[in-house]
Amino acid sequence: MSSSTIDNQLSIAIDDLPNHEGQSFGPSAWQQLTQSDVSAYAEVSGDHNPIHVDPVAAADSPFGQTIAHGYLTLSRVVPLMAEVFTVTGFKTGVNYGLNHLRFPAPVPVDSSIRLSGTLQKVEEIAGGYQLIVEVVFEVEDNPKPACVAELVLRYYK
């Protein structure tokens, strides 16, 4: 079998993907989301909702402080997943989309998130494989996940 697991990392050769359906990986390292990260994301996305960028207004919200944008949390999927899940031996890999996305809990500014996942399904497609991967973003010290997403990834030989 052409795969390896180093600590919590899963590395799979492209031709061995079908043998790893159902396998879990992670968690990644913790990564802090700061007010600077949130404010920079607000500038790029154009989402200046006070719950994200105005500490005074956010203090009077149900969350009591500013929180990260849900899509900012999701945008951390690439670096966090790269720590714990890799496919080798492919020529091209693409993010094909999402089947499911939820943000069950907020990410308070200055808290940390990490990612775990499961390779749910591997389907052969012309020239490669399509993967359905569930990822879960935890928030440190919160039992409820911040983000649960079902990614659709394609890897071509």
TrEMBL record:
GO biological process, one term: fatty acid biosynthetic process
Signal peptide: none
GO MF, one example: fatty acid synthase activity
MaoC-like domain sequence ranges: 19-125
Name under which the protein is recorded: Enoyl-CoA hydratase
Domain of life: Bacteria
One family name in Pfam for this protein: MaoC_dehydratas
InterPro entries: Fatty_acid_synthase, HotDog_dom_sf, MaoC-like_dom, NodN-like
The species this protein was found in: Enteractinococcus helveticum
Cellular component per GO, a single term: fatty acid synthase complex
Family membership noted in the UniProt record: Belongs to the enoyl-CoA hydratase/isomerase family.
SUPFAM superfamilies tied to this protein: Thioesterase/thiol ester dehydrase-isomerase
